[in-house]
Write a sequence for this structure.
């Protein structure tokens, strides 16, 4: 496998102020002009006008504008007012443009560089996603490095993912601050009626075609706009809208190799070194699907992910930048054991089944009629699902909505890519039809572990932890002296739970850049749980 980081493009060199020379063409007759004006002011006489000529008569109380302009004091006042008004208009225009595009470059102070003894480092942020990593995995006693990172920094007991709790929508939310209905990646697989194409997460063209992703600007592009170099290691969407350096997805890349690639990027020369790195580790999610979240087999992948975090922490320490770099570790969602099945072809009529396109947003049952179906097709399909749930409330194990009626806490109705019918199974249940699998045979083609369910369910919650110098300033360490042992302990800094749309502006604050408009409400200012309880 090729571990080289692929450079897609280089940022233009920053132009120094010393490279710009301002020139002004002098007025060669300035002194003569001033003398002439002074002479005019001294020799001006009302008798020069012909008072007998009524057509040229000017009242004695009339002040000619040219007379005002010839008065040097008034002239300078008028020039000053004009300059002040022009400057005010310029600032207002600049503010409006900055507000529209989200890049208020002039409002950010320059930060000091960090010197580790041999190299200079600008503010550095490393974002790592452990796909499918549940908060409960931290309680297994096999993640010492993640526990150390959390103890040295801040940690949320859990973070709410966005709905649907799927990999591609949530990874794009983490780097844009937008809900899936806003950024357009509404599932791992969905149909776009305008493009008349289907997005499939396993399809390379879907992952590299910017038309699917361009509704939102990822943080690495924002960083580039602020003259920060960026890099991405296999982050979903980075192949379509690339950073400065891109390492494309490769399923065989191990967590340890991800750590190595991250450290190689940090070893680049100062003028080429990225300040923002996003890295994706998929093995915990893959094992969760294959074995379920409660099987001992998943522990191997959890240990591998934790070892990669430890390798990165040790590498930063060896480079003497462990007290300078910011590390943010997140997951996109959790995982639930799924061993119950709902046969939707037993619920829908043969006619309704004939109206349907391929199902979308697996494991949800999002349904969209074909273009040539009768006008009432959507309501017929919805009515059959709703009637079954009402008739058999203890057996249905799902909630079905027309898109416009999806509950507001899901933020999942304001996009044409969301299908007209949204059916959400209970955690632990999966929609199948008899053509997909027959669990009674003992051979299941469905994953043992799944996600995509209600974002508030405990099995779907995600992790969040971070450490770095700015974090220590924002959340000062609280020492707790112990009288009996004379040993000073440190109070853990636990954050109140929050939605993952808040991660984006937390990252932009670490990078000292202005973020684009987004769905977050905390503006990067995460809150300690203790400050809420008190």
């Amino acid at each position: 496998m090729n571990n080289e980081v692929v450079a897609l493009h280089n940022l233009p060199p920053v132009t120094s102020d010393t490279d710009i020379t301002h020139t002004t063409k002098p007025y060669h007759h300035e002194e003569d002009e001033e003398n002439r004006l002074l002479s005019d002011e001294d020799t001006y006489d009302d008798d020069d006008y012909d008072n007998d000529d009524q057509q040229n008569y000017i009242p004695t109380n009339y002040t000619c504008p040219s007379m005002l302009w010839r008065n040097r004091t008034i002239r300078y006042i008028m020039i000053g007012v004009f300059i002040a008004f022009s400057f005010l208009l310029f600032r207002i225009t600049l503010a409006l443009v900055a507000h529209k595009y989200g890049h208020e470059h002039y409002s950010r102070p320059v930060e000091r560089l960090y010197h580790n003894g041999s190299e200079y480092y600008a503010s550095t942020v490393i974002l790592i996603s452990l796909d499918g990593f549940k908060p409960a995995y931290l309680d297994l006693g096999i993640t010492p490095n993640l526990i150390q990172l959390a103890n040295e920094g801040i940690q949320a007991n859990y973070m709410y993912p966005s709905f649907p709790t799927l990999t591609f929508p949530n990874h794009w939310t983490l780097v844009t601050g937008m809900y899936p209905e806003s950024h357009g990646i509404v599932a791992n697989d969905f149909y776009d009626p305008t493009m008349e194409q289907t997005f499939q997460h396993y399809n390379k063209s879907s992952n590299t075609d910017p038309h699917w992703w361009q509704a939102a600007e990822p943080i690495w592009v924002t960083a580039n706009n602020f003259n920060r170099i960026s890099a991405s290691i296999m982050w979903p969407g980075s192949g379509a809208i690339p950073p400065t350096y891109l390492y494309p997805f490769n399923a065989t890349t191990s967590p340890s190799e991800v750590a190595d690639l991250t450290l190689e990027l940090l070893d680049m020369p100062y003028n080429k070194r990225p300040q923002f790195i996003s890295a994706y580790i998929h093995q915990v999610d893959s094992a969760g699907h294959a074995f379920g979240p409660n099987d001992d087999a998943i522990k191997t992948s959890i240990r591998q992910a934790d070892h990669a975090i430890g390798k990165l922490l040790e590498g930063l320490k060896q480079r003497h930048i462990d007290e300078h770099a910011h590390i943010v570790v997140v997951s996109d969602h959790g995982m639930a054991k799924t061993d119950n099945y709902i046969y939707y072809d037993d619920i829908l009529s043969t006619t309704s089944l004939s109206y349907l396109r391929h199902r979308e947003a697996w494991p949800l049952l999002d349904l969209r009629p074909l273009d040539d179906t009768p006008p009432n097709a959507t309501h017929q399909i919805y009515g059959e699902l709703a009637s079954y749930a009402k008739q058999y409330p203890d057996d249905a194990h799902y909630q079905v909505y027309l898109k416009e009626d999806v509950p507001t806490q899901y933020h999942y109705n304001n996009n044409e890519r969301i299908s007209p019918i949204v059916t959400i199974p209970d955690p632990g249940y999966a929609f199948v039809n008899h053509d997909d699998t027959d669990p009674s045979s003992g051979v299941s083609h469905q994953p043992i572990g799944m996600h995509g369910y209600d974002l508030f369910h405990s099995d779907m919650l995600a992790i969040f932890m971070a450490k770095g110098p700015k974090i220590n300033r924002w959340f000062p360490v609280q020492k707790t002296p112990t009288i009996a042992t004379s040993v000073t302990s440190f109070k853990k800094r636990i954050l109140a739970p929050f939605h993952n749309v808040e991660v984006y502006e937390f990252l932009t604050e670490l990078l000292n850049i202005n973020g684009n408009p987004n769905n977050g409400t905390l503006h990067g200012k995460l809150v300690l749980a203790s400050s809420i309880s008190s």
